[in-house]
């Protein structure tokens, strides 16, 4: 979280992390779309 990619929120004894860099979220979305397209092409 120190690098700014994640944000952290403490609630009692629990700590919740969230992706705070929108570039990372977009990258994950593009990778998932590409992988899904590859699976469809291979017939899986």
Description:
- This protein has 44 residues and is α+β, with helices and mostly antiparallel strands.
- The protein has one domain (6-42).
- The protein has one helix and two strands.
- A two-stranded antiparallel sheet has the order 1-2.
- β1 and β2 form a beta hairpin.
- The radius of gyration is 16 Å and the shape is elongated.
- The mean pLDDT is 85.
As for the number of domains, it is: 1
What Rg, in angstroms, do the CA atoms define?
A: 16 Å
Instruction: Kindly name the structural category.
Output: alpha+beta
What is the 3D form?
A: elongated
What is the beta-strand fraction?
25-35%
Lateral strand order in the biggest sheet:
1-2
Low-confidence stretches: none
Please render the helix and strand layout as text.
Blueprint lengths: L5 E6 L2 E6 L2 H21 L2
Antiparallel strand pairs: 1-2
Give a quick precis of the structure.
48% of the residues lie in helices and 27% in strands.
Which features does this protein show?
44 residues, alpha+beta, two-stranded antiparallel ribbon, 48% helix, elongated
């Amino acid at each position: 979280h120190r690098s700014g990619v994640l944000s952290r929120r403490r609630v009692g004894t629990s700590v919740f992390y969230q992706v705070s860099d929108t570039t990372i979220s977009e990258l994950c979305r593009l990778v998932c779309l590409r992988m899904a397209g590859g699976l469809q092409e291979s017939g899986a």
